[in-house]
Target: Nucleotide-binding universal stress UspA family protein
Amino acid sequence: MHDPKDRPLSRRPEGPSGSDEEALLSSATPPRTLLVALDGSPPSLAAAGYALALGVVLGSRLHAVYVDPDGEGDPEPLPEDEGRLHEIPLEGHAVQGIRGLYLLARAAAQKGTQVRLWVARGNIVDGILRTATHVDANAIFMGNTGRSGLGRLLLGSVAEEVLRRSHLPVTVVRGTSGIS
Model:
């Protein structure tokens, strides 16, 4: 007589070998090109740190973008030398975003890797997605302030819209705007 306790802990699913589910699991590859969307806020910097750590471990290429909502345009590379930043016209909110890009570049250099910096202009979600296409990204990383209620209703959520519209995996690092 067969004792039920003797059965294997896992069973092979019924059906033919090489099912669609098995193919999905076995075809996954690590992302080779990561894009970080930065606005200089603490949550976006946390997302940048997470992407940097993952990129170093995986040996992935890193790109970071700040999207200036004023104007319209395709992603443009920033100068590698932060000292040449005066060549780019920046105002108000853009200064914080660009500062975040260069903070990430310095952190990457300390870890022995590089990050390519970009500025896009126009709708923030569109700018992130255009840059992802431009750099041939395999994954997007971004922060979220965790707004709720009226603030979220009035301002919307860039992270949610990127999640809805992107065909790429998106990692959202939550945080609050009150982090100092």
Confidence is low (pLDDT under 50) at residues 7-12. The radius of gyration is 21 Å.
